[in-house]
Amino acid sequence: MRHSLLESAAIISQRFVKDFEPGIRTRALIGLVRFGAFHSSGTSLSLTAGRLEIMCGRFTLKTDPKVIASQFKVSSIAILEGRIADLTSPSVSVDQVDSEIFKPNFNVAPTHQIPAIVSQGEETLLTAFAWGLVPTWAKDPAIGSRMINARSETAAEKPSFRSALVKRRCIVPADGWYEWQGSPGSKTPFYFSPMSNSVMGFAGIYESWKTPDGQLLWSAAILTQQARPDFSYIHDRMPVLVAPELEKTWLSAPASPLNDVLDAASSVDIQAWQVSSAVGNVKNNSADLTLNQTLF
What is the mean pLDDT of the chain? Predict the structure, then answer.
């Protein structure tokens, strides 16, 4: 069966992993269900936060896939059972996709399936990945829960990321992301978004992991960097943003153009404001999560 790799993951024992929001108990999802317009995971396991640092752990995506496709010059979208699917699924041209199947997500969290743009030869494709990179050499796919981010300063040196950084880069579209200010027990969420109405592109890398029966799990991580000085009082890290003029280079350059992308990232204008603590619960998913609380 095509999704047997997710069924096998459902027997993973409880373990300490990076939390979706540091300092709270949450749940990760493993197994197959649909999440919005993407195939996502569904057998839940209770997981308790470890002490690993979370960087970019939540974001939003509400923009129509056809608008995303237009902005990032996507020619095809991987589709399975009417949902955006992974790279093993057939692709269709953008004009054949029904936008009404897409459901906005205002609280994208680790282990969710996330959309990403990749270059496949002459084709630029919108596809889906499990958020949390599982290296090819991993013995257990649960390691992806600890690999939602890759530090740009060290990704080229890390066995988990260095091959993907050279050969398998992607762009994760997002309307904005959340960061928490403060320490566990006293944390204030903020929402970051572009000054323009365009969708941002996070620099990402992806990998495939093969199960004993030969099935493939496609997964991805988002690259992070030191926060801009204007926002470092909120959090000391932020996603690496791909400037529009470097999108094609990031996706298809034969060698990693990470330094060029980092140099140009500051040209993407962003803003931030305080939002409701309700975003800390992954079950909450509405536009209200992004409302500016400093106005009330």
Answer: 82
Q: Does the annotation mark 179 as catalytic?
A: yes
Residue 43 has pLDDT above 80, yes or no: no
Residues making up the chain, counted from first to last? 296
Q: Which of 56, 170, 207, 247 is catalytic?
A: 56
Please classify residue 19 by burial: count the beta carbons closer than 10 Å to its beta carbon, then call 0-12 exposed, 13-18 middle and 19+ buried: buried
Q: How far apart are CA 58 and CA 187, in angstroms?
A: 15
One of 21, 170, 179, 207 is an active-site residue; which one?
A: 179
Q: To which H or E segment does residue 181 belong?
A: strand 176-183
Q: Which amino acid is at 282?
A: V
Cα–Cα dist 177/60, whole Å: 6
Side chain identity at 16, as an amino acid letter?
F
- In 50-195, which residue ranges form alpha helices assigned H by DSSP? 65-71, 162-167
Provide the whole-model pTM: 0.83
Tokens representing residue 225 in the block: 């960097």
Is the confidence at residue 184, as pLDDT, over 50? yes
Could you tell me where the DSSP H helices lie in 115-267?
162-167, 247-252, 258-264
pLDDT, tens digit (0-9, with 9 covering 90-100), for 46-86: 222 333 345 578 999 999 999 999 999 999 999 988 889 99
What the chain holds in terms of domains, given with CATH numbers, is 55-295 (3.90.1680.10)
Residues 192 and 178: their CA atoms lie apart, in Å, by 6
8 Å CB contact between 31 and 10: yes
